[in-house]
Amino acid sequence: MLVVVVALLRRRFTDDLFEGSAVVTLALVIALIGYAPFHIARGICSGLGHFRTYSTMIALDGLLRVVACAVFLFVGLDNVGPYALMVAAVPLTIALATFASGRLRSNEGTPATWTELAPNLGWLLLGTLCAGALINAGPITVDLLGEGSDPAIVTRFANAVLLARVPLFLFQAVQAAMLPRLARLAALGDSDEFRDVLRRLFVLVGGVGVIGVVGAFIAGPIALELVYDGGIDRRTITLLAFGSALYMLAAACAQSVLAMSGHVFVALGWVASFLAFVATAAWSSDELFLRVELALIASALVALAVFAVGLRTYFARLASRSRS
User: Fold this and answer.
1) Whole-prediction pTM value?
2) What would the pLDDT profile of 67-80 be if each residue is shown by its tens digit?
3) H helices then E strands: how many in the chain?
4) Do residues 245 and 210 make contact, with C-beta atoms less than 8 angstroms apart?
5) Is residue 112 part of a domain?
6) Which residues of 96-120 are buried (b: 16+ CB within 10 A; e: fewer)?
7) 216 and 68 together in one domain
8) What is the Cα–Cα distance from 230 to 319, expressed in whole angstroms?
9) What are the DSSP calls for 212-255, one per residue?
10) Do 178 and 197 contact (CB within 8 A), yes or no?
């Protein structure tokens, strides 16, 4: 569906988002196609407990891109096209290689009917689209709201977002290990163990988030200067790191609600979060960077609040069952 949308709007994408580069639009289509089997393979690895294969996929996703970019730079490629196509093709290549290796084979389980899967898939798709939109909303919003501004401003903000999101990459490993276990505990109705795992999850994610925020405040401007030639002040990188930490907590909470079959709560939480982002970015401030930073923080707080209600509803339901 997304590929069809991009195909229909390819001229708008090419002219308005990619500065006239049709190759980048093609790369977007390839990436959309490639990430489907890539995430399916990751999900199978997580569900089967094949964490070595899972971690290999994640590591290769970054390593291959870095190595390829280094090679392109060494041979003197300065056109955006090869870089875009390479970045888009890596996930598809990894997914195909993983499936071909035979590591994802498993015994057949109980068949699931489409009437059982379709509603949950719909809610998951809606939630995933909104959550993914929030991940990429910062630089895009700066570009849209700063119409007529120097493109270098958007680039500097995007660089700061990348640095502030480093802890999010660590969360992928936690997500893969915790979701199957939480789902099993929810299916067993073991609320005490579920609470214990949830508590440890939040302590871990919160701790990583605090380290990220403190690190951004202390060393963020220096790191940006070394890696990206600076251009972003301490307030911006710190607020971006704070928003990233809140997003991690919201994502962890969403995974917990999802483990309890709370697909509707997860979808509504991310939809509400996206709407909060739009509203805050539109009306919170006249300063370009600050309004986007506040929007990222507000959206994560809204998502966290909705998912917390979902968790409370689940535990209340378990308590009523145990009393009866």
Assistant:
1) 0.82
2) 999 999 999 888 88
3) 12, 0
4) yes
5) no
6) eebeeeeebeeeeeeeeeeeeeeeb
7) no
8) 53
9) HHHHHHHHHHHHHHHHH-----HHHHHHHHHHHHHHHHHHHHHH
10) yes
Structure-token pair, residue 152: 């270098």
Contacts of 228 by beta carbon, 8 Å cutoff, 6+ apart: 156, 159, 163
CB count, 10 Å around CB of 322? 9
d(CA 5, CA 18): 16
pLDDT tens, 277-319?
A: 999 999 988 899 999 999 999 999 999 999 999 888 888 877 7
Report residue 35 as tokens.
């990430």
Cα(299)–Cα(280) distance, rounded to whole angstroms? 8
CB atoms within 10 A of CB 75: 8
**Domain shared by 209 and 89, yes or no:** no
Same-domain pairing of 292 and 318: yes
Residue identified by tokens 């501004």 is 149
User: What is the number of structural domains in the chain?
Assistant: 2
In a domain, 222, yes or no: yes
Pairwise CA distance, residues 226 & 221, whole Å: 9
- Tell me which residue range forms the domain holding 249: 117-324
C-alpha–C-alpha distance, residues 32 and 42, integer Å: 16
Q: Which of 76, 103, 130 is the last residue of a domain?
A: 103
Q: Which of 103, 138, 169 is the last residue of a domain?
A: 103
